[in-house]
Specification:
The chain has six helices and four strands, in the order H-H-E-H-E-E-H-E-H-H. By secondary structure, the protein is α+β, with helices and mostly antiparallel strands. Strand 2 and strand 3 form a beta hairpin.
């Protein structure tokens, strides 16, 4: 059987060469389409809302800031869990979304709902610049932050390199919360 197969391959060299090239380019095309991450992120998409007010105690932060934000954002589509932490002068709320949800659509939904929220004067909720999207790298292009870098800025605590990058990018309509005006 094997000698007959070798004899056929030697007799039909152009056909075998064409099949080999077809197999090579098909494999290269499949490799190009393959989305493999060496260390995938097993956590769901998460958006973190941080609010600071140094003059309030932990109980006041919980009552005046954390709970209103949680209630306003509790009915978002694809929201699976909410975790919050209220400390002296700091409210930290993490919103976890379903695995199949789009990170940027969820982020926009959070921004829209935060804009409609009424909080005490001088309190401005911001979205944390750290994000977690399944199978994402932390580069600017892969994360899509070049589309809306202003959304990830946290008040006046923006580093000089981040501010330089922000000045070179066009602004967008979703940079209404947390953008250092």
């Amino acid at each position: 059987m094997v000698p007959r197969l070798v004899e056929f391959a030697l007799a039909q060299r152009p056909l075998i060469f064409t099949l080999g090239l077809l197999l090579l380019f098909g494999g290269l095309y499949a490799f190009h389409l393959l989305d493999v991450v060496a260390y995938p992120d097993p956590s769901p998409p998460m958006i973190e809302v941080i609010t600071q007010n140094p003059s309030l105690s932990a109980e006041e932060i919980e009552r005046q800031i954390t709970l209103p934000i949680e209630f306003a954002l509790a009915v978002m589509p694809r929201l699976s869990a909410t975790r919050s932490l209220s400390l002296f002068g700091l409210s930290d709320i993490k919103f976890y979304f379903d695995y199949g949800s789009d990170y940027f659509r969820d982020r926009q939904e959070v921004l829209n709902r935060l804009n409609m929220l009424t909080l005490p004067s001088g309190v401005q909720p911001t979205i944390s610049p750290w994000f977690r999207e399944r199978n994402s790298s932390l580069s600017m292009e892969a994360a899509g932050l070049a589309r809306c870098l202003g959304c990830v800025m946290m008040g006046n605590q923006v580093s000089l390199s981040l501010m330089t990058m922000a000045n070179s990018l066009p602004s967008c309509s979703c940079c209404l919360v947390g953008n250092p005006g």
